[in-house]
Design goal:
- With 155 residues, the chain is mainly α.
- Helix content is 61%, strand content 0%.
- Helix 4 packs across helix 5 and helix 6 packs across helix 8.
- The protein starts with a helix and ends with a helix.
- The N terminus is likely disordered.
């Protein structure tokens, strides 16, 4: 979240409030702090679970471009991997994989505004070793290929 807001502010970029809301960020830059206040959907998460999950979300947001492993994240949340995945999905409305991909694509959108970075470099920066895999996921998430996104920006 910090990276997204810092880069957006420094580049005087505007990011759609709808897109920000999709990633759990409200227009004022917050959003994650409210996770602990979510209702106990299905009775699977205690308040402590929700608070620990909020901390894990902050970690994921700060390290989304790194190789994140379920076992490590579950350990951070003091949960088994199965409980972590289930709790994450119930509290966030999407799987961990889809959440991380969404965060990576948000960063990619910002990086694609920099013409000195190749699409392959952007892909590697946001955590993908394959530019073609990155392009396919970018299109699924954003609706256009990275090259088309750049063309629309006139970069």
């Amino acid at each position: 979240t910090t990276f997204l807001w810092t880069l957006a502010a420094s580049a005087a970029l505007t990011i759609s409030p709808v897109r920000l809301a999709f990633y759990g960020i409200d227009a004022t830059g917050g959003g994650l702090g409210r996770l602990a206040d979510l209702p106990n959907v299905g009775g699977i998460a205690t308040r402590g679970d929700r608070e620990r999950m909020r901390d894990v979300l902050r970690y994921i947001d700060d390290h989304c471009c790194a190789d994140l492993r379920i076992d490590d994240l579950a350990r951070m949340a003091c949960m088994s991997p199965t409980k972590f995945k289930e709790t994450f999905r119930r509290l966030n409305g999407r799987t961990l994989t889809r959440y991380v991909q969404g965060r990576r694509m948000s960063r990619a959108e910002l990086l694609l505004r920099r013409p000195e970075l190749t699409i392959g470099r952007v892909a590697r920066t946001v955590g993908y070793t394959s530019a073609s895999r990155f392009a396919a996921l970018f299109k699924r998430e954003v609706g256009v290929l990275p090259s088309e996104y750049r063309e629309r920006l006139d970069v």
